[in-house]
Amino acid sequence: MSRSQNAVELCALLVDETYGELTSRIFTILLRRGKLPISEISRHTRLGPKATRNGLAVLIQQNLVYYHTGKAGPTFYEANDGAAYALARSGKVIEFVESRYGVFARDVVQNLFLFGHTKVSDLAEAYASQQKQAAKGKSNGHPAANGVNGHTNGNIGSGAHMDGLLVELLELGLIEPVVQRMFRNPADIKDELEADITTNEIAGGSIKGSSKKKEQLQGILDERLKRIEAEDREWRSKVLKRPLNGVLTNGVNGASKKRRLSHSGSSIGDHNYEDDGTRLDPNLVIRINHEKCAVLLRNAQLVEAVKNKLGDTTSQIYAELLKHLEKKIPRCAHGTTEDEYQDRPLVSTRDVATSLSKSVNVSLGIGKTIGEGPKSGELAGPKLGSPPVNRKRKAGDLEGSGSENGDDPPINGNGNNHEVDQDGDDVFADADAVKSPKRPKVTFQDKLPEPEGLHSREDRIYHIKEHMALLADDQYGFVTREADGQGAWSVNFQKVIQKIQEAEIDKLVLELFGAAGHRLVRMLRQLGKLDEKHLKDTTLMKQKDIRTKLAEMQLSGWVDIQEVPKDASRGANNNRVIFLWFFDNERCSSLVLDHTYKSMSRLLHRLNVERRRAKSVLELTHRSDVRDKPPDEYLMPAQLNELHAFQDREDMLLGQLGRLDEIVGIFKDY
Amino acid sequence: MASTSASAPAAAATPPAAPAAAPGHDIADLKNKVYDESVRLTEEDTKVVFHQNDILDMEFMRGIDVNTLLAIINELLKAKLYKVVQDADGMGWKTRTREEAKRYSTLTPEQEMVYSHIDESGAEGIWIRTVKMRSKLHDSVVNVALKQLESKSLVTTIKSVEHPTRKMYIKSTIRPSERATGGPFYTDGELDEEFVDMMKRYLVKYISEKSFYRSSTLLKNANKTIKMSAEEAKRARNNGLGPRRQAQPVDNARAARIRNYESMVPMPHGYAGYPGVHEMTAMIEDRNVTNTTLTAAEIQQLLDVLCFDDLIERVEGGKEGFSYRALRKSLLDDEEGGSVLTEMPCGRCPVFDLCEEGGPVAPSSCIYYNDWLEL
């Protein structure tokens, strides 16, 4: 995280919001001053040593602080701002878990958030005690605890269910086993390793000036880091009484276990974490894996983008595809190198088709072409090349023939004149060639939607392929076709996110500077640095308007100007200088990000203010004797109104906080 | 000199001069012959410049010495049929049409100098200061000359789009070039934004008709699941609390629009019906959308702007190699689909830079927040 003033402020506020003032004081000092030993911390915070130690303990528990003891000398503490920011995202993760795994899972994850890292046995115990509390009638009612208050309304709570769930979450990577390494700053670990490699493995010691040695070092370093990571993530040995295979199968074909959004919700009974003998080592220490959370939330963001660009049905298929990929992606990698590009995880059309919920009607969401004759999709016209027979079925069993790689030349050549497909991509050509023979049927279905069961498997695969082609075809390049001939797809996340970033900037510019500013910015982005005259010709705008708009945008930092003198004399003679306008995407991204941080911290500030204003009522609701009753039983109507007004505002502020977090995700984490 | 050849029908009709040795060196006759021949050559290549040798090489000039040539050329210059130019090969001459020559012959020397500069600038027009600089005449002389030329309606002022502040002159017989007028999107040197907007809207409508398929099933389904935007939710809540039934028709219109949006689905991959530039140029022409004729290049210009506006995008394919398709968001209004950041006051706060707890502007006392939180 860039340590801008606003980012620091936001992190401090988030810690304050979640864990109270003591911790946030220590945390802020650490953020502002970097690594400090404990004596320095207590000096700067003016806290006693005991309070400091208490605060640090909480922070370490939450992984908000890294610590490291050198070979000699005191232990240094360092703020982990990434973890602090993750606090803002906890609500979203919990929501995600609930939508996929149900209420029980939500409660478990909520507890994990509350505890930081914890032993499996402790988690189970906490859950059990919550159950007891729930049984006694204790419910929530602590508004300050930002979504971590326990709603416990089920009666499952047995350790076996918990273990089953945890295994599933570990499988997904949403939670991870905690190891010593995690309490140190990753950059430190890397430095140490680097030093170690330099002295022990590379002859000659110094690597200065030798690019070859540098490369060698980098290679060894990457390998070691990967190895360490792989070791750390190894948790399967801790699963007891269950063969490794079983776990894997559970992960891969667990279609029956996939919890769908539509099923989640009301009752826990939907989710049978049957006691299948899985037991986790009770001493295994686990925590939430924030990097993985980012991957999962990124998927949601991408699905949303597809929904806006292409439509609902396509987005559902995309969601399914991403779900297949998510297990193979431990984190949202930045700065992808060529090799990583090569080993991007793949998913095949068939896998998507297999696991896609039957409730998704894949035949919807794509227009139908009516041959080449009439150019309009809406007008009914003569349907060219549409024999009523389903040629595809005649051609053979679809599943058997592996038709995804388009090995059906007769169909390809049966006179469907799709001239666009002349680019030699026969997979696509096949898909199109098949289109015409099927058309009558499809059109019919669009008019009279039939129950999903009537769709044959081939039809589904065919439609899904169409949706995939649409995704691949889009400017954003949501999926990339892999050239292995098996109908495999991959996603170049960096590229798509980059596009979404640009779209986000565009939206903002459109709102702040109107259509004219929007047009100019997009133009400068696409065409690079431009002279005013050129701008005028291309934008079809008045020069005066352009200049005003650009100046306005320059003032707030969205575009900038560069002087290029025609000769060495940089006098006042303006004729001899060319002024070029340009737009810097990266700079604007950081601008937006900083703006967002600041907005978020203002929201939290305001929330505190609102809380102070509603203090009298809130204190009432926190009284121990009335805590468990619904507020309308003991509050006066006026007080009740005040409480509701406050709750509305709180919802509004926290809701907006969550939405702003999406922007931070887009611009930083994804 | 683009207009020279066009306005000399007499010269054009004359067949190439027959090769004939002129024993008596009839200067008037030779003069005409040289002139006709040079007009013919000028017709072939309007940029041609005649040098001494070029003229001597003409067939009928065989055996004519330099002095006679000098006399001939002097005659031509006196008649204003020739004008002197300098190029890389030294001095040379270019032709003028007889009509032009007649005009020149009525002018005073000062007027002639000024006029010749304006003449040379052709359809681009010339800036008055450039005339003064090149002719090296006194300002007042130039001004007087220009006034006289204007009164003879030989020259007119134009407004150049490129240099809107400069006073430009152009010969009154020719139309200013597109570079000077700015093309069909300009009226009187000003960009006609209304016209541009109208054409853009027309094109977007046309493209989007060909870019989406209206799914009747989704149209039906959409009725059941209309999502409320933040604003609409707000409005709905307001309706619940405050005055009722007022915003209802607005909501319905919006709901219909959303329904419409939801039911518009993209065309499948490989769809070839997206329109290309030429198709649209022809369409605009056929439908008589405008009195002005728009060329394909101008339609392209409009399409580029639409791309920059993020309303349409360019795709490979279609009959013309490239075609255009509308983006889904072009179906929505501007207000919908805004940024999350601008939904809240901070996103559009004019004093956001000053905002600081304890400062003059602070979240605790923020009036925008008050409005926002009160809804």
UniProtKB/TrEMBL annotation, chain A:
PANTHER family: DNA-DIRECTED RNA POLYMERASE III SUBUNIT RPC3, RNA POLYMERASE III DNA DIRECTED -RELATED
UniProt region (Disordered), positions on chain: 133-153, 251-274, 366-456
Domain DNA-directed RNA polymerase III subunit RPC3 winged-helix: 505-582
A Pfam family per the record: WHD_POLR3C
Entry's localization field: Nucleus
Subunit description: Component of the RNA polymerase III (Pol III) complex consisting of 17 subunits.
GO cellular component, one term: RNA polymerase III complex
All residue ranges annotated as the RNA polymerase III Rpc82 C -terminal domain in the record: 166-498
Residue spans of biased composition, Low complexity class: 408-417
Tagged with keyword Transcription: yes
Species, as recorded: Lachnellula subtilissima
Swiss-Prot/TrEMBL keywords: DNA-directed RNA polymerase, Nucleus, Transcription
Segments of skewed composition (Basic and acidic residues): 447-456
Name of the gene encoding the protein in the UniProt record: rpc82
Any single GO BP term: DNA-templated transcription
Name the record gives this protein: DNA-directed RNA polymerase III subunit RPC3
Source domain of life: Eukaryota
Function: DNA-dependent RNA polymerase catalyzes the transcription of DNA into RNA using the four ribonucleoside triphosphates as substrates. Specific core component of RNA polymerase III which synthesizes small RNAs, such as 5S rRNA and tRNAs.
Molecular function per GO: single-stranded DNA binding
Family to which this protein belongs: Belongs to the RNA polymerase beta chain family.
Ranges of residues in domain RNA polymerase III subunit RPC82-related helix-turn-helix: 9-69
TrEMBL record, chain B:
The keyword NADP belongs to this UniProt entry's keyword annotation: no
Role: DNA-dependent RNA polymerase catalyzes the transcription of DNA into RNA using the four ribonucleoside triphosphates as substrates. Specific peripheric component of RNA polymerase III which synthesizes small RNAs, such as 5S rRNA and tRNAs.
Pfam families: RNA_pol_Rpc34
Annotated organism of origin: Lachnellula subtilissima
Lineage: superkingdom: Eukaryota
UniProt keyword annotation of Ion transport present: no
Chief location: nucleus
Record region (Disordered): 1-25
Keywords tagged on the record: DNA-directed RNA polymerase, Nucleus, Transcription
Alphabetical list of InterPro entries matching this protein: RNA_pol_Rpc34, RNA_pol_Rpc34-like, WH-like_DNA-bd_sf, WH_DNA-bd_sf
UniProt name for this protein: DNA-directed RNA polymerase III subunit RPC6
A GO CC annotation given for this chain: RNA polymerase III complex
BP GO annotations: transcription by RNA polymerase III
